Amino acid sequence: MAETRQWQLASRPVGEPTHDNFELVTVDRPEPGPNEVLIKTLYQSVDPYMRGRMRDAESYAEPWDVGDPMQASVVGEVLESNSSRFESGDFVTGDLLWAEHIAADAGELQRVNPDHGPISTALGVLGMPGVTAYWGTTDVADPNPGDTVVVSAAAGAVGSVVGQLAKLSGARVVGTAGSEAKVDWLTEELGFDAAINYKETDDLSGAVDETCPNGVDVYFDNVGGPITDAVWPRLNVDARVAVCGQIALYNETQVPTGPRKLAKLIETRAKVEGLLVSDYQPRWGEALQRLSQFVQSGDIQYRENVVEGFENAPDAFLGLFEGENIGKQVVKVADRDE
Amino acid sequence: MAETRQWQLASRPVGEPTHDNFELVTVDRPEPGPNEVLIKTLYQSVDPYMRGRMRDAESYAEPWDVGDPMQASVVGEVLESNSSRFESGDFVTGDLLWAEHIAADAGELQRVNPDHGPISTALGVLGMPGVTAYWGTTDVADPNPGDTVVVSAAAGAVGSVVGQLAKLSGARVVGTAGSEAKVDWLTEELGFDAAINYKETDDLSGAVDETCPNGVDVYFDNVGGPITDAVWPRLNVDARVAVCGQIALYNETQVPTGPRKLAKLIETRAKVEGLLVSDYQPRWGEALQRLSQFVQSGDIQYRENVVEGFENAPDAFLGLFEGENIGKQVVKVADRDE
């Protein structure tokens, strides 16, 4: 019988995840049941929110069980189909597994059209991160022309799209990122008005002051921690804060502490709102359509950091916490034309 | 020439204010100018937000200058009038001074009708705290029938009105307060479903769990600090947090720290909003009209803690930080019928 490989959760991390938390297991290749298709994974996504699923605690996403394969968004090719919706050779995407071959119900899958661009974008700018950025910007952060918008993790899969959407709305956009290469990409290619390399800045507060002389009207937070602490005192009256991610805190072993932030909200009457893309499921297609137009017109640019090889998927995931990726971090699992 | 007394800011407090920060000064009684009236103060308000004005830092209210009389809401009687709007014997209220006699422009004053109830209520349930509670509840916190609403400083001037308004909207209401007498008032007279005496509770988190078995849909925060820390993890999906005051933190000399709170907002998509009553200036009358109706119908009850004597105004103010007041803290400066 044919075999395949999958990554299972070997143990729950304490603090920063390590390779010991992941186990590469060879299993029988699944047989597709009624209305199922067999998928060969071409690209697998790794995303910061997965850190939460390694924990043994209820949150917005259910925790993974130790000894089970982990879940991920995947783009793959249909090898066999028991569904009238798909045939062999089709490209599909869905919330599936860290696995090289997957049997999935046809109802869980969306078609990916390779004529519309690289199929891996279904994991990034034309996938969950793009949709997060789209609704997070247009529905929660709501930048107006002339507003100063600060985006943390601005060179990431979500932040890079948020910043470009904010520019399209006429705002002044400042990003934070962790390398000179990222800062250059933001300011020279994506049109950000300024960017702060937080790893090279002794004085984050000063850097925010300098790049945001009129204060901050919108803060789109992917990071939390010290960057957020530096932005907070510069919030303007009626500022909006969209809380999308807190990756700086995901590996903390204690309840993280920091400056108390609520008093500033009285002074500014700022509104702080958490954001979860799954709430926008009914409007997913609307976002994808707009994002596709922006990508085709060149108004939104994107990058991918492609980690080669399924065996390196944990490295790709761990790399997110080191900020190694410019743009969307994806794992290339196999070639299309095998 | 007749004299009068006023309280001046003698020095800026470091940490908890003390009597040394206040100086009682005898000055010439002012003469009302054109369109001004001379007011004899009957009641003076002391409010937690005044702590911010003792600081040398810009915030939503301008800092007081050392050596100047401090400002306060006042209810008084007109002694002399150079305005066609008021005549001697009228009762008025306005944002005036910590002073026994005040010359004020008629345009700064509102009339107080003594037939509508005790004139001191113009400083409490029918004044700034009442209006804060009204718009904070109806416009920001927005409780729905069946919601669990937690109000901190629930026996205070604002919190007691918030809780009763939330009950009127059909919510289940839990208050926090600092004495058994307050807890009894909340649960036995104001109709709160439960109340937590935070000073007698070793386990605030457990107390919130116990009194809010279905989590917290609305948190109206007057206090900040550990009480807020205990409520936060119990916020439900789509919860609303109205940040009205942070009295637990006003006397801190360092930037106060505490558990980081933003990640919880992603999990819950909760909305946190600061609230300042001055934003509702155009709708002040609307709130007062509704509050008057509720007070007259008995749907809203109130209490005042009256500190006798102008010389005791600093004590009344300092008492706010000890939680000595049930309901609105006011200073009785003089009798009506002098």
UniProtKB/TrEMBL annotation, chains A, B:
Q: Which residues form the Enoyl reductase (ER) domain?
A: 17-331
**Pfam families named among the record's database cross-references:** ADH_N_2, ADH_zinc_N
Please give one Gene Ontology molecular function term for this protein.
oxidoreductase activity, acting on the CH-CH group of donors, NAD or NADP as acceptor
Keyword annotations from UniProtKB, A to Z: Oxidoreductase
Gene3D superfamilies listed in its UniProt record: Medium-chain alcohol dehydrogenases, catalytic domain, NAD(P)-binding Rossmann-like Domain
Q: Can you say what this protein is called?
A: Enoyl reductase (ER) domain-containing protein
Q: Which organism is it from?
A: Natronorubrum texcoconense
